Structures are given as structure tokens and as C-alpha cells.
């Protein structure tokens, strides 16, 4: 799925995918940061 999004050329979709991936990585590695900033709700 990620390759399709990245190769699609749709910059809005790419930015959304990157944001989702960043939040997922942060929740796995530093969940206390998400609890502090509530970044998931953006």
C-alpha cells in the first residue's frame, strides 16, 4: 500500500501517510510523548 501512495504523486495523500507512519512509530517507541501532546487527535 505504501508504494502505491508514494508513487501516486498525490502530495496530500503522501503527507497524510507519512504523518500516520510517524505517529505509529512514536507510539511504539515513545508513547509518553503522545500522551503529553495528544498528537493522535490531529
UniProtKB/TrEMBL annotation:
Location of the tRNA methyltransferase TRMD/TRM10-type domain: 4-36
Annotated InterPro entries: Alpha/beta_knot_MTases, tRNA_m1G_MeTrfase_C_sf, tRNA_MeTrfase_TRMD/TRM10
An annotated GO BP: tRNA processing
MF terms in GO: tRNA (guanine(37)-N1)-methyltransferase activity
Protein name per the record: tRNA methyltransferase TRMD/TRM10-type domain-containing protein
Amino acid at each position: 500500500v505504501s508504494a502505491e501512495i508514494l508513487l501516486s504523486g498525490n502530495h496530500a495523500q503522501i503527507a497524510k501517510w507519512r504523518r500516520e507512519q510517524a505517529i505509529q512509530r512514536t507510539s511504539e517507541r515513545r508513547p509518553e510523548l503522545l500522551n503529553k501532546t495528544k498528537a493522535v487527535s490531529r
